[in-house]
């Protein structure tokens, strides 16, 4: 059984937050903002710390944090006095964001996977599988819940190693034809 880190991240946050499709998707439709959210899933961080890890100017990271804050995706989780200044530590509002409402860009996550996925020679990962099956909607919802639970376990894993891995999970209806129950 994989080790789950109860202390990841190092601040309190909700398990799920509902965000509007319009404001929330606009806020996360940027690689820098997604990287910030991913980093904050491990621990709270200041603008300077995030800028250092991302290799971007503090002003740029500050701008992106403001966008995420306005969208309700991040907030200040603690402060620390450093000399005469007060440093703000930002954290995610929730481990998982559930998008509510119409989604104009339904394939943003798929495009992101295609852009960031690397294929190291001789490695077993990345690994993809695509399957189709005709099942009742209530059974599909059970699978969807298990995918959510798996993704929550994935992000709660103890950080380590040299590689950041991504996990993309999805369950979706298709227009593919299927056999009727009486067909042989």
The residue-averaged pLDDT reads 84
The major pleated sheet works out as: 2 strands, parallel
Q: What's the helical proportion of residues? A: 25-40%
* Helical/strand content category: alpha+beta
CATH fold-level assignment: Arc Repressor Mutant, subunit A
Shape designation:
globular
Number of strands: 4
In the predicted model, the low-confidence regions spanning at least 5 consecutive residues are 1-6
Plain-language structure description:
The protein is of the alpha+beta class. The protein has one domain: Arc Repressor Mutant, subunit A. The chain contains six helices and four strands, in the order βααααβββαα. It has helices spanning 21-28, 31-40, 47-54, 58-70, 108-116, 137-155; strands at residues 14-20, 74-82, 85-92, 94-100. The protein has a two-stranded parallel sheet with strand order 1-4. A hairpin with a 2-residue loop joins strand 2 and strand 3. Helix 3 (47-54) crosses helix 4. The longest helix is centred in the C-terminal third of the chain and has 19 residues, at 137-155. It is globular and about 75 Å long. Residues 1-6 have low confidence and may be disordered.
